[in-house]
Design brief:
Elements (H helix, E strand, L loop, with lengths): L10 H5 L16 E7 L5 E7 L1 H5 L3 E6 L28 E2 L5 E7 L2 H8 L3 E6 L6 H4 L8 E2 L3 E2 L2 E3 L2 H6 L3 E9 L11 E7 L2 E6 L4 H12 L6 E4 L15 H13 L3 E4 L2 H7 L6 E9 L5 E12 L21 E10 L13 H19 L3 H7 L17 H12 L12 E2 L2 E13 L5 E7 L5 E4 L9 H13 L6 E4 L16 H25 L15 E3 L2 E4 L2 E4 H8 L4 E7 L6 H5 L3 E13 L5 E11 L6 H20 L32 E5 L23 H13 L10 H4 L9
Parallel strand pairs: 1-14, 12-13, 16-17, 21-22, 28-29
Antiparallel strand pairs: 1-5, 2-4, 2-6, 3-5, 7-8, 9-17, 10-15, 11-12, 11-14, 15-16, 18-19, 19-27, 20-21, 20-26, 23-24, 24-25, 27-28
Helix pairs in contact: 9-17, 12-13, 16-17
Bound molecules: dioxothiomolybdenum(VI) ion.
């Protein structure tokens, strides 16, 4: 079953509208609707708030502001991960960023709540905020660590000497904008009181974190908070933690003793869930004429919110990518009065690879060397900074296979040399690498006396295919047909997991399912082989085969259902676990990553600089694949994110107010079908990483975006001879450099 292109088991539920999302759990009872009022200044203090008209408006039950909000627990920095910490709201009159919640209006209907929200009158004393990254970019500090607990700076060898002595050098700055996760389903929550308990229906990625965060904020016993999140319409980092939509709904629900639901509007999603920091990255590469790198440096400056530090690990990826004796990486932060930075779609790797892989293309150009060959020449034998072997590195195979399939030999050797009508044609490529993570996860597998299996964990399916692959792993583990395995996810009352994020969800939960099934098999075999009533009596359990609902040893066979019914008339269950990578020696003894190579062809309109992606092919090595269909969908989705990063995505701050000005999908552009050609594909090499886990699989959710934007940017350079280093590459940046139209 593992490795088959099984259709999504939850597909029919979603296609027929029967999959209930956070805002749609009607079983919670008739809810009230909350609407968040946001600050209309970016920094300062509330000096007066008049809620009288709002309170008197039709249908209104409550207007909550900092003056009447219940006491809440503090953010506790001794808790290791931000997403598990309390998120107190409406705690005082100070405004920290534009759009920060200043009130919640709760009414009978959404429309009444929204109308009354307009009647809340807030007076402010406007303070002087720091909003403009460019203005404060030199006023930096050094964070203690960067995201995922990685070191802030690293140094190997003597970079300055190595770079100074290099025959060919690249020394360039690349800038990347604020980006938002932007799943289709906005962040939303419905909270229903049940006596002393709270049932929290919420769109989130990590159930365990949501429970602790709600409990910590409302100062409740976590056992009394029940998170329910069976379906999630995308997360991409914005739902790793919960936000005002959940905390304010919970506070109001407790105050009113009624179910209350709160969704963010699309515009509020651009204010209230955090975003990828903007970055200024300096990349220095020094190489010999043979293309071998002597020195690599990646120095990154980013914004952070002053109260909730977030340092994206943008320079961390290059630490494992290429060989070079002299190396340097650094991260610096400048505090701005903007929403907090947060994990967005391959945090660190995505913006970091965009720059580093553009710089590698610049180096290939300076050397007059094929960019694929340049990367192959710098293939390391061990992880060059950690000095440990790679577990399963197949970057060179990805590069060679991708080049062959794409027809890379047809790449225009000289930039701006190929033209079809009004289109300048160019090819570009890049490498991809992403670390693989493992976290503590427990799964319960239960066999019912009728021979069906139920798999339970608080793991979420954020649209990635968790229901489907866990069904496959369970079916294989117990030798059952797929339709006799049911997967039950997204409830904090189930055994806890690390959730969906960081591309770790599939392997964490699958490995745990595999182990739970193994424990059940052992228990049932021991019972059957030792039981004179079983046809398997006296057989060697080690020879057993579980298939099609039967257990077979040699010539003897018995239905699994019979064994369960005889020995466990009430059913039988076992738990399986995956441990934290820090406690697994493989993760300290090996550098465990996924790899890829991206190839893109673009056309650039010689008159208007309009850029069209014409085709794209990426080849990946990700260990074993659970389901080629869901895997391809994940990988292509990631590649398309990269296209967006290269050409479209950019949130723009008004430096006067600290507001993001393009707060909707009309102004914040992401690739749509019209932007992406039909000729796009992801190919995965056969693989099995025996160091990653017992199933040989690694995460695939984010490796697709790593480097894919650089392949597009490099194709734009190959088409035009113009290098734009300020992402995204929009027309006005490209147009002035375009070659003059031939007569
Ligand atoms: Mo991901 S940015 O860890 O959801």
């Amino acid at each position: 079953m593992i490795g088959q292109a099984v259709n999504r088991v939850d597909g029919p539920l979603k296609a027929t509208g029967r999959a209930a999302y956070a805002y749609e759990h009607w079983e919670a009872g008739q809810p009230l609707y909350g609407f968040i009022v946001g600050a209309t200044i970016g920094k300062g203090r509330i000096t007066g708030i008049d809620t009288e008209d709002a309170e008197g408006a039709p249908g209104v039950h409550l207007v909550m502001t900092h003056r009447n909000a219940p006491a809440q627990g503090p953010r506790d920095e001794s808790i290791s991960f931000e997403y598990w910490r309390a998120q107190p709201m409406l705690t005082g009159p100070d405004i920290h960023f534009y759009g920060e919640p200043v009130a919640l209006v709760v009414a009978e209907t959404f429309e009444q709540a929204r109308d009354a929200a307009d009647l809340v009158e807030v007076e402010y004393r406007v303070g002087r905020g720091r909003f403009d990254f460019g203005e404060f970019e030199d006023d930096t500090y050094i964070p203690k660590t960067v995201n995922a607990g990685l070191p802030t700076d690293t140094a190997v060898g003597d970079f300055d000497a190595g770079f100074a002595g290099a025959e060919v050098k690249v020394d360039q700055r690349y800038t990347t904008p604020y980006e938002f996760s932007m799943p289709i389903e906005p962040n939303a929550s419905m909270v229903a009181p049940r006596g002393e308990d709270l049932v929290v229906y919420v769109s989130c990625q990590i159930t365990d974190a949501a429970r602790d965060s709600v409990a910590g904020t409302l100062m409740m016993d976590p056992e009394r908070v029940h998170i329910v999140t069976p379906f999630v319409g995308g997360g991409f980092g914005s739902k790793l933690g919960i936000h005002s939509e959940t905390i304010l709904a919970a506070l109001a629900a407790r105050t009113l003793d009624r179910p209350v639901k709160v969704t963010l509007t699309r515009q509020q999603v651009f204010q209230l869930v955090g975003m990828r920091p903007t970055s200024d990255q300096r990349v220095r590469l020094g190489a010999g004429r043979d293309g071998r790198l002597a020195a690599i440096a990646h120095d990154v400056t980013m914004h952070t919110n002053p109260d909730v530090e977030y340092a994206e690990q943008t320079a961390a990826t290059v630490r494992s990518l290429y060989a070079a004796p002299h190396r340097l990486t650094s991260h610096r932060l400048t505090a701005l009065d903007l929403p907090r930075g947060t994990d967005v779609r391959a945090p660190g790797e995505a913006p970091g690879m965009l720059s580093v892989e553009s710089a590698m293309d610049e180096l290939a150009d300076a050397l007059g060397m094929d960019p694929v060959e340049l990367r192959i020449r710098n293939e390391p034998t061990v992880d060059p900074e950690r000095n440990v072997p790679y577990s399963d590195r197949h970057l060179v195979e990805c590069l060679r296979e991708g080049a062959r399939r794409f027809g890379w030999e047809n790449r225009p050797a000289t930039p701006a040399s190929v033209r079809e009508g009004r289109w300048l044609i160019g090819y570009g490529m890049s490498a991809a690498i992403r670390g693989h993570f493992q976290g503590p996860t427990t799964v319960r597998v239960r066999l019912e006396p009728d021979g069906t299996a139920v798999i339970q964990t608080d793991m979420t399916d954020i649209g990635t295919g968790t229901y489907t692959i866990l069904t496959q792993v369970g079916a294989e583990g117990l030798g059952l047909p797929l339709e006799r395995v049911r997967v039950d996810l997204g409830r904090s009352d189930h055994p806890s997991s690390w959730g969906s994020g960081g591309s770790w969800g599939a392997t964490n939960s699958s490995t745990a399912v595999h182990r739970a099934c193994a424990a059940l098999r052992t228990r049932l075999l021991d019972a059957a082989c030792g039981d004179t009533r079983s046809p398997l009596h006296g057989q060697d359990p080690a020879e057993a085969v579980f298939s099609e609902g039967d257990v077979t040893i040699g010539g003897a066979s018995e239905a699994l259902r019979e064994i369960v019914a005889r020995h466990h008339p009430d059913g039988v269950e076992a738990e399986g676990q995956t441990r934290f990578m820090g406690d697994d020696p493989n993760y300290s003894n090996y550098s465990i990553n996924t790899y890829g190579a991206h190839f893109a062809e673009v056309g650039v309109d010689a008159d208007t600089a309009e850029i069209r992606l014409r085709r794209m092919l990426s080849v990946f090595s990700v260990g074993r694949v659970f389901n080629p269909k869901t895997a391809r969908s994940q990988l292509i989705g990631g590649m398309i994110w990269g296209v967006g990063a290269a050409l479209e995505e950019e949130a723009v701050v008004d430096p006067r107010s600290g507001a993001f000005v393009n707060r909707d999908f009309a102004g914040y552009l992401v690739p749509v079908h019209g932007d992406i050609p039909a000729d796009i594909d992801a190919v995965v090499l056969e693989g099995y990483d025996d160091k990653a886990n017992v199933l040989g699989a690694k995460g695939i959710g984010e490796v697709g975006i790593c480097g894919s934007g650089a392949a597009v940017a490099n194709a734009v350079f190959n088409a035009t001879g113009v290098r734009v280093r300020d992402f995204p590459i929009t027309l006005e940046k490209l147009l002035p450099g375009l070659p003059a139209m031939a007569a």
